[in-house]
Every structure is written in C-alpha cells, then in structure tokens.
Write a structure and sequence with these properties.
- The N terminus is likely disordered.
- Helices cover 29% and strands 14% of the residues.
- The strands form 4 sheets. Strands 6-11-9-10 form a 4-stranded mixed beta sheet. Strands 3-4-5 form a 3-stranded mixed beta sheet.
- By secondary structure, the chain is of the alpha+beta class.
- It has a single domain, classed as 2-Layer Sandwich (Muramoyl-pentapeptide Carboxypeptidase, domain 2).
- Bound molecules: zinc ion.
C-alpha cells in the first residue's frame, strides 16, 4: 500500500506549495470543433469534439447541468443510455453528475481525473419522482446527497443500504466498456460479504477515498481505433475480497492517514491549488481553438 501512501503525500504537498491558481480549462464553455478524439489519460488529457448528452432517457437523467461538466466522449453517453435501459426494469433511474468539461482537461479542485470524457459520476440517490417523469432542469439542480457510507465510521450506513445498489454496480461493472469503478471501501466489503457476488465483475469495483454518495465509472479507451493517443489502463482481474489491498482500508495505518488528511483540511481551509498536470502537446492546440 506504499504506493497509495506516497501518492497521497505528493498530492497534499503539491496542493500546499504550488502558486499558480489560474486554470484555463475551466474558463472554456464550448467544445473544440473537429473529429471526436481523446489525447492522453484519465488524469492528464483532453478531448476534441466532445459530445453533449441527451439529458434524459429511459432510466437515466443528467443532473446539475449548470455546472457544464456533462461533456464527454460519445461512448460515455451511450454507456449511460444503455445502463439506464438495463436498470429501469429493476425500478432504478440513474442520476448522472459530472463527466468532463467541454474540452476535457484538468480541474482545479473537483476531480483528479475526468479529463478525457470517459469518467462518469453516478449518484447513489434515487428520486422516486424520476420513475414516473423526468425531473425538471431546476429539480435536477437541487437534489440532496444520499450517503451509502459514513466516512468517519468507515462503514456502510445500514439504514441507507439496499440490494438495488448491488444491482446497479453489477450492471455497471459487467459492461465490457467499463475499465473500473470507484466506491467507498465499505461498499466493496459489503458486496464481498455475499459469496454470490464473488464473480469477475467484482474485480472492477475498486475501493477509494470518499465515493460514499456516488460511484465513479471509468470507461476503457474507445475500441474503434478513433483515439490512438488515448492512454489506456489495464482492467483489474483480482476480485479482491480477501486480499491485502481491501484489508488496508480497514487498518490502523489507514486510520492514521484518514485522520491526518482530515486535520490537514481543517488546518488549511483555503489551500493554494496544485500545479496542473503536464498534458499531451495536442491539448495546447485544443485549448487554443476558437471559443
Ligand atoms: Zn468521479
């Protein structure tokens, strides 16, 4: 788990000591024209020809449209539409939050990834109204958070748990287009407790910080050869229920780190943003195209 430890301290240090807070990617409101193409990776990349989604469809709705972070690769939007159709017969309607900014690229605070239109945040919140009608745009701006896990207790909130979340995560992970899905560690542990869930799809469900009110789907690079400069990541194959990695998230070492992170945030309510990642050269061109 040393890699997670060192990655975190690097992240905290870069937030604390960087000085340039201007992020041009967050100033852009329109996609770069031209053929849809991804450059770079999930944590350091951009997107040409991003697509806006069809905002509502069978079993899904995009929320918080005013954030203008619904732009994505077309494969992300078709994945959402397919997942909604799959889950709607189970009485589920997905509330889909951030994908990417109009040209992808790095965020100052919101996300470390979500840079190439292939990362999708989906709320655990289920709004019963959305099973009978699409919520209005205004309603979709003001939805509450629904927490499946308590981060301080590092455990599931039993009163909020429902087997439908396994149904959601199984369908999301079993899709061939999915590379991995991030959830709160206690959610992974909860799913592992049912031996019937110990199937290959569960390998794609990865424990990570937060992710207690939404899960984060990461799709693979498009398989049609249209983005040869999209930087892939390998698909996890270890179901991971009994291994050292999941156990670490419930260890004393994890608790120490959690408390240190929490204290650092309390002591630094207005941290200076970190430096932006080095992006592929094509991203400069995409950034400079007419707005
Ligand atoms: Zn996310």
């Amino acid at each position: 788990m040393k890699n997670i430890l060192s990655a975190l301290f690097v992240a905290i240090a870069s937030v604390a000591f960087a000085s340039d807070s201007f992020n041009p990617w967050e100033q852009i409101t329109t996609p770069a024209l031209g053929r849809q193409e991804i450059f770079g990776g999930y944590n350091a990349g951009c997107l040409q020809g991003a697509h806006a989604p069809q905002e509502t469809g069978i079993g899904y709705q995009y929320i918080k449209l005013s954030r203008n972070k619904f732009w994505g690769h077309s494969s992300a939007h078709s994945y959402v539409a397919d997942l909604g159709k799959t889950l709607r017969p189970s009485g589920i309607s997905l509330l889909v939050a951030d994908v990417s900014m109009p040209r992808g690229g790095p965020f100052t605070w919101d996300h470390a990834s979500h840079q190439v239109g292939l990362d999708i945040d989906i709320e655990y919140l289920q709004d019963p109204r959305s099973l009978s009608r699409p919520l209005t745009v205004q309603e979709r701006e003001r939805l509450p958070k629904y927490y499946l896990a308590d981060t301080d207790a590092n455990d599931i909130i039993s009163a909020n748990w429902d087997e439908k979340y396994v149904t959601m995560l199984r369908a999301a992970a079993a899709d061939q287009r999915t590379q991995m899905i991030f959830v709160h560690p206690s959610i992974k542990r909860k799913i592992c407790q049912n031996s019937q869930n110990r199937k290959p799809w569960l390998a794609k469900i990865q424990p990570w910080w937060d992710h207690h009110e939404h899960f984060h789907v990461r799709l693979k690079c498009p398989s049609d050869g249209s983005s040869p400069n999209c930087k892939p990541k390998p698909e996890p194959t270890d179901i991971g229920c009994d291994g050292a990695e999941l156990a670490w998230w419930f260890s004393d070492e994890w608790r120490q780190m959690y408390e240190a992170r929490k204290k650092w945030r309390q002591d630094n309510p207005n941290p200076v943003p970190g430096a932006l990642p080095a992006l592929p050269q094509q991203c400069q061109t995409i950034l400079g195209e007419p707005r």
